[in-house]
Amino acid sequence: MRHLLLAAAVLLSLTPGLNQAAASQAFVRAQGTEIVDPNGQPLLLRGMGLGGWMLQEGYMLELGQLGPQHKIRAAFTGLIGEQKTAEFYQAWLTNFITKADIDAMADWGYNSVRLPLHFNLFTLPVEQEPVAGQNTWLDTGFALTDQLLAWAKANRIYLILDLHAAPGGQGNDLAISDRDPAKASLWDSQANQQKTIALWQKLASRYANEPWIAGYDLLNEPNWGFSGSDDKHGCRETSNAPLRQLLMQITAVIRQVDQQHLIFIEGNCWGNNYQGLLPVWDKNMALSFHKYWNNTDLASLDGALKLRQQHQVPIWLGESGENSNQWFSDTIATLESQQIGWAFWPLKKLRLNNPLHIQANAGYQQLVAYLQGKAAKPSADAAYQALMQLATQDVRFEYNKVQRDVVAAMLQQPQHPQASAFVPLKLSPQGLSWQAADYDLGGQLHGYFALTASNTSGKPANAQSWWNSGMVYRNDGIDLALDADQLPVVNALQQGEWLHYSLKAPAAGAFELWAEVKAPAGASLQASLNQQQQAAVKVQSEQWQWQQLARLQLLPGNNSLQLASPGAAVQLRQLKLQPL
């Protein structure tokens, strides 16, 4: 047998065609309209993008209009100087993503991660090159990518490389590519295009034999009007010839050094306008469309599905998110019904509608208030301490808050929408008390019912149009707020809305249900236990006050408790069951 194996190995080494065919089986690839794994089985990518790590955007740091990273860096430099700003960014790159983040993603059930690359971690900008037309390669970006790949391989998670900020910037949405409009864009500069092409060849040469890299996402969200100034983001382009030409040039140099990896291409108009780009020019290629702030039904995927069928090419939702848990669940359920994989955005930021919530220190919050014109300028020492605490501690996984509701909305609810306890609610003989905001997981019609469960009509303009007007604690459609002790409360359970709680009782027993409420005249609460509706009880109080709602007979084991608001909106802080 050993001799047979050696003979086979020699045959493969002497037969380039066979050797290449065998090697190709070890990589994720396109097969007809499907993305398949190295064994040729359909691969449904479920992943997150690491936005904010190699490339910052202002909103992720609650910096609003500062937008592109070069403006953020300039603002920090103005406060603490260039040397200390450099220290901050070094610490940021070291701590923002660690192995603990990737371990957690694997434990939760994600199987892939999309890495947004900023070119300036890999090579100098063209205007800084010592010799025009040459490329100075930097170790930082490659070392970080190598490290992330090692963590991904340890967890059997696929890595997708995504050029998020190309030399010069690839669009008029400045923040997403860190574009400086005072300098030549990607499309206005042949030097920037050549550097982009060279970077991809360098990356492909380095990672050509890495099967845990699922593919190369060549250019994130191009948004450029090639034909006229009234179409800044290229949404009405019918040719897209410069984009097609650049993507073909990148593909050609990749294939000189790497015949194996899947290549993703994105259309103009933030990845969604493919007019003039197709048909594909490589047999191992997929389309990456993006989806934000729109409907979650099958009709919302109509354009992408038609492209898949017409051109017999796989499609992948390479970026989506920034909405409510219910929007996530509904979108993912629709995608997976059509065998479309996804990568949502981002894994973490200083907001709660992502798996990890960075909770910034008070000094940084003061710094943000200053930069927004709402507070006095902090001293250089105070600003430095705040920024370094953010970069060395706050951003690290062990200090992040895991938004279990978001993870469940992505990985459990799309296929198994059912109520399950957000926190264990187990009664003892002495009863039980718990936060009203700890209603069940499961989403709309299972863990809760909210009048506004998501937003499908464009990015919300103000707090009143968000699903959770307070944007604290959880990312569902229930309005929450923090009380004076910074504990979460249900801020407005509106007429027709309800909350569900899964309870466990060690034995059958009679209990009184009480609620700590604030409510105007005309408000009431109605409890249902195990689908048996109790009489509604009027509640009215200008201050937090405990009020008895019902006497309930609990069964041993699992019990289902629902609390509804039949009248005016009610505020709820705590609930309790007391034995009779």
Automatic annotation (TrEMBL):
Residues 88-347 form the Glycoside hydrolase family domain. Belongs to the glycosyl hydrolase 5 (cellulase A) family. Coiled coil: none annotated. This is Cellulase family glycosylhydrolase. InterPro entries: GH (IPR017853), Glyco_hydro_5 (IPR001547), Glycosyl_hydrolase_5 (IPR050386). Residues 1-21 form the signal peptide. Keywords: Glycosidase, Hydrolase, Signal. The lineage of its organism: Bacteria, Pseudomonadati, Pseudomonadota, Gammaproteobacteria, Chromatiales. The keyword Hydrolase applies.
